[in-house]
Amino acid sequence: MNRLQRVPWPRVATLAVVTLCLVYAPVAMTELWSYARPGAPAPGEWILGRTVSPEYVAEALRTRVAPYGRSLVPLVVHSVLGGALMLLGPVQLLSAVRRRPRLHRAAGVVFAVTVYASMAGAAVYLVRTAPEDAFSGPTFWIALAAILVGTTLSVTFGILAALGRFPDLHQRWMLLCYGYLMTAPLLRLEWGALPRLLPGLSMEEINRVATMHLGSVVVFGALLASRALDRGGRPVPGTGAPAADPLGGAGTWVPFPALVLAHLAGGAALARIGWSFLSWGPVGGRLLLGYLIPYAAAFAVMTVRHRRAGRRGDGWAREEWRLHLTALCLAPLFSLAAAVPLDRYAGLDRPTALIAGVAVGCGMTAFAATAGLSLRVMYARELSRRAGPGRPSPAAHPQLSPQATESRESRAYGSRTAGAGTG
Question: Which residues partner with 184 through β-bridges?
Fold first, then answer.
């Protein structure tokens, strides 16, 4: 255990992400060349064919010729620029870590423009492609549309946060944006890895399993990166208030009863989803495992980190973990709610509507949590600004500070969430 604790995990994770991006960039840029010109280099297909089997790849590609042919130029633009984003992302991350602001700003402008252009190509493809013609059907089409919206909005909010001089929020939005972009290389990894765990399945079936958890994996990764890169103690621009306490002395936005209620509602919704999936036989069981395992891992880590932050009195970390933990608990409830309009108004059958709702649930609620955190920080800055330089901030009053009740609430949380948790 001591050896594991001494491993510089943030540095290892950064190196792994940078390596994956560098390897995937040429794969993304050449992925659609073979559709425009048969026989063109396609390193992604070559690697996947030797990792699994040529038949596994050929079967999937045969179904893509017609849908891709209707939107080939926008898709090529999307894939080439997507490969460029895989290279620009590490530049952005490393320039921020190394504190090179000029390089970071210049690369950031290029990154944002490239995101908008790449997402425009993806939008044209989605508009021209019927949901049933998408790879793995309507579920994957809906997941792609959700990623498109999340990526575009997160980069937009990241730009607005930078212009508003909220560097911590800018960092969080851009990491969330890059998390959404990372669904592409991670999906390709799962196309090669999951057939070893689930032999005999086609790539289309593997794709359905991967869609169940990719959203939760990437947004959880973005949250871990945000916490690892957070540098507490810096003043919030224009206020002098420490960035380590965005609460402004007004307490948490998720009081303890609300957190317990979110656990109970999420647990009930998760049980309902599990019952539905298991009623579909082995196919539903595979999809449920693909959803539950990453969900339970994220829930466990968030719960532990939230309690640790509370014990050491770190209000900034505690509130961030708390907001995201609440969002994760509510993700199954959001999935059930999203399945209703998809069933009634989108022409999907009930199983497909529920699978689509589950596929986008964690990604959507994590986006909402990041938006909530942004509003929380801006509200705290406004409180500090109203207090004025010669007047005490609300944080100076112990009875209003969340740290004053931290130890009592942490003990209550530890004793009561065992029966109310979802993981």
Answer: none
